[in-house]
Design a protein that fits this description.
The chain is of the alpha/beta class. The chain is built from 23 helices and 12 strands. The longest helix has 38 residues, at 2-39.
């Protein structure tokens, strides 16, 4: 009877510990996309916001593990519980969470602004949540439970809670609740977690004496191994997230997808019986790497969004599994549990610091993705895939063969319109990936991949010309190229052309305007009715439209100081020099600054804001359109540039037009090949009947019946990226 009660108490205690760890992880990972989405509009929707948030949460997790490590080594008995009680109680002072009214000054280095904003809003609650897994596992290991000797299986409860939080946010919670409602739900759940936490400290019997085996004490090499094996996949996580969000959109779904796979790798590796073995993932790794290598090698030109995401997620998951499986294989005895987690947290934090702080200062391009990719390849356990050493030729020949094949592909100039040259280039890539299936030494394979990436970084020059300017900041990478054969300067953000100018003398104010021919025609229609306009343009680019509104009261809204520097440097682009905007340039987020303009002030508002090929979602929501409408004259026009390789935003704007009761015009402009103009897609919202009639009859615009048009409704609280992906 007594034994039965003892077993029952043990089972209840196990359930309590598992639930507490699960709930803490669920809340820890739920608050990450919640906080990032809340502050994203303050920073212009930049993909680096999520990376910086990741660094913040990794840093807090490191502090949490350090706290637990010190508590279990320095404090004893009731003093340990008292200290934790005080810290936990202090965290309640920061509830409920709220980002309302916290509009920050971005400053010259937005990374620190993001960190400070998160610190003053949720530092202590997140810190307490971060301590839970290792602290409760420590309590459990010192209980009389039959499984106390190996509490590592509880780590899976933490990862499952994290996984469910990340899945539920974009698919269950975000569509049904606003940010403020979610903040309240999160705060109430935190109180429930606190109750479960103190129940987990309940003793179930005498505490066994843990005898440390000095022979099992981890050495310096093992600690460094833990550090590298946690650093590499975390760096890769942030790098691959930045890669896909820069060219598609910085939204919770695309933030969460890589993080889901990252956590899934930890769940599988830390489970008692992993359903993906270390041996299997090492054997099949070359097949997983074929896909991202092809995508990176051709810089994703012509690839649809789903393919880019799929290819990079496959490679990322495989490399993460390689590192995490080896991390689990090298775990120490339970006596060093808290130290083990501390080293994992330190590696993860250093990986996020490298990507979010060091790399942008050190590199003028996103080279950290390539570095993390190669590092993960190098870290695979060589001993498990060593085979016979009779023939070492493939080990040394691989980098040479890869270099030769890439040189051949480079000389073929694969980015021309020739179909046969495209086929040749893919044959070269296929040959490389075939060779990778025969690899032997990880360092040699990493070298070959590094050579491949080196050539990949030169692909933009094949398309755009000679690089004459390149810089990188919080908002991305900007390049300026000189195309000699066509006498042009080209501004490229990420992988996308954002403006061009003819370098022929003398300067021609009516020269071809890349994507902006429809706006040139719209300006002419407006000027037939009114000589002087008040015009707002969100997104400066190269300042291409300045000369079309040279006699008007024009104001640009631009968040990136680097873009302002490029557009105002005459040696690069001279539109602003010849046709300076009469109202100047307003630096900061376009939506926030447009809201400061007088009511009914502008006759024309042009929204042309991109980060590479990604669009800032908060500039296309219903609330954003309401702001523009409030600043627009009754007969004014709001024009949206929506050209994108990956997204069709016309249903979103159709939904907005219906909600604000405005007419909807649509244009796909395909200019003549002899002009330096590019195909573009534009949408106009207006109630100006006369102007609408002229645009439709003379300028090929189409007036769309909103009753039959597919509509998607986005708000500041809800936006579904899947509904507009091409």
């Amino acid at each position: 009877m007594q034994a039965s009660k003892w077993h029952s108490a043990n089972n209840q205690y196990l359930l309590c510990c598992t639930t507490t760890i699960f709930l803490s992880a669920f809340l820890f990972f739920l608050v990450q996309p919640l906080a990032a989405k809340a502050i994203l509009p303050f920073f212009g929707g930049a993909p680096a916001v999520w990376n910086t948030c990741m660094m913040f949460f990794q840093g807090v997790l490191l502090l949490s593990y350090l706290y637990v490590y010190l508590c279990t080594r320095v404090l004893f008995g009731k003093s340990r519980l008292l200290v934790h009680f005080v810290v936990v109680s202090s965290s309640l002072l920061m509830l409920p969470l709220s980002f309302v009214g916290k509009v920050p000054d971005i400053g010259t280095y937005p990374v620190w602004t993001v960190i400070w904003l998160l610190t003053q809003t949720l530092l202590l609650p997140v810190f307490i949540l971060g301590t839970t897994s290792s602290l409760v596992q420590y309590w459990f290991s010192h209980s009389t439970h039959s499984q106390a000797k190996d509490p590592y299986f509880l780590y899976s409860a933490s990862n499952i809670g994290s996984l469910l939080a990340l899945i539920s946010f974009p698919f269950l919670l975000e569509p049904k609740f606003g940010l403020q409602q979610l903040s309240w739900v999160w705060s109430v759940s935190y109180f429930v977690y606190i109750l479960m936490l103190f129940l987990s400290k309940r003793d179930v019997g005498a505490v066994p004496t843990v005898i440390e085996n000095k022979q099992l004490s981890p050495g310096t090499n093992q600690r460094l191994k833990w550090l590298l094996l946690s650093f590499a996949p975390c760096s890769l996580l942030i790098a691959v997230t930045q890669y896909i969000t820069t060219d598609i959109a910085s939204v919770p779904l695309l933030w969460i997808l890589p993080l889901l796979l990252y956590l899934l790798a930890y769940i599988i590796a830390f489970s008692r019986k992993p359903w993906i073995s270390q041996a299997w993932i090492l054997r099949e790794l070359p097949l997983f790497l074929i896909f991202p290598l092809i995508s990176l090698s051709i810089q994703a030109y012509g690839m649809p969004a789903w393919q880019i995401i799929l290819f990079h997620m496959l490679g990322f998951f495989a490399l993460t599994m390689v590192c995490v499986s080896e991390l689990v294989a090298s775990r120490p005895s339970v006596s060093y549990l808290t130290e083990y987690y501390l080293w994992i947290a330190l590696g993860g934090f250093l990986g996020s610091v490298f990507n979010s702080v060091i790399a942008p200062l050190l590199f003028n391009d996103v080279y950290e993705y390539y570095i993390a990719f190669c590092l993960c390849v190098c870290l695979q356990p060589w001993g498990l895939r060593q085979s016979e050493k009779k023939n070492r030729f493939p080990d040394y020949a691989l980098p040479i063969i890869v270099t030769s094949l890439l040189l051949a592909g480079y000389l073929l100039d694969p980015l021309t319109v020739s179909y046969s040259q495209w086929i040749n280039y893919f044959i070269i890539l296929s040959t490389i990936t075939l060779i990778l299936t025969w690899w032997r030494h990880p360092a040699h394979v990493a070298t070959s991949i590094g050579i491949l990436f080196l050539f990949a970084t030169q692909m933009s020059s094949l398309v755009h010309g000679d690089l004459i300017w390149k810089t990188r900041n919080f908002f991305g990478v900007a390049r300026v190229y000189n195309k000699d054969e066509s006498k042009q300067h080209r501004l490229v953000s990420g992988t996308t052309l954002h403006g061009l100018q003819s370098t022929k003398e003398p300067f021609d104010p009516n020269q071809a305007l890349s994507y902006y021919k429809p706006m040139k025609e719209l300006a002419q229609v407006f000027h037939q009715r009114k000589k002087s306009l008040h015009v707002a343009i969100a997104g400066l680019g190269a300042g291409t439209l300045s000369c079309q509104f040279s006699g008007d009261f024009l104001r640009y809204y631009e968040i990136d100081p680097t873009v302002v520097s490029i557009a105002t440097t005459p040696a690069l682009f001279s539109f602003l020099t010849h046709c300076p905007p009469r109202l100047g340039i307003s630096l900061g987020d376009a939506r926030i600054n447009i809201a400061k303009a007088p009511e009914n002030y502008y006759e024309l508002i042009i929204i042309d804001v991109y980060n590479s090929d990604a669009i800032p979602i908060h500039l296309f929501t219903y609330e954003a359109v309401k702001i523009y409408l409030n600043k627009l004259s009754p007969q004014g026009v709001i024009a949206f540039h929506i050209s994108s390789r990956h997204m069709n935003l016309s249903p979103v704007l159709a939904g907005n037009a219906q909600q604000v009761n405005m007419g909807f015009l649509y244009l796909v402009d395909t200019p003549s090949l002899k002009q330096a103009e590019l195909q573009s897609i534009w949408v106009i919202l207006t109630n100006n009947a006369a102007l609408t009639n002229e645009l439709v009859t003379k300028n090929k615009w189409k007036k769309v019946n909103l009753l039959t048009k597919r509509k998607v409704f986005w708000t500041d609280d809800y936006s579904n990226i899947l509904s507009v992906l091409l």
